[in-house]
Design goal:
alpha+beta
């Protein structure tokens, strides 16, 4: 698995985006954000282990952001 893509419709999208961007900057991954009519689609791409870690970590951030 070299990418993780998900849609986010919750509050504080900018804060979540900044948190993920900062996290990716310290690892070998890239965050792509696509605006939707409501919310955004985010995609994290990188090495397999980094993407797996991102999946676990992003779920926690989303719970804590809302």
């Amino acid at each position: 698995m070299n990418s993780y893509e998900f849609a986010y419709y919750g509050a504080r999208l900018n804060a979540l985006n900044e948190t993920i961007s900062s996290w990716c900057a310290r690892r070998d991954c890239v965050l792509e954000t696509t605006a939707l009519l409501q919310g955004a689609r985010l995609r994290i791409s990188g090495p397999d282990e980094t993407v797996r870690e991102a999946i676990r970590t992003v779920r926690l951030w989303i719970r804590n952001t809302n």
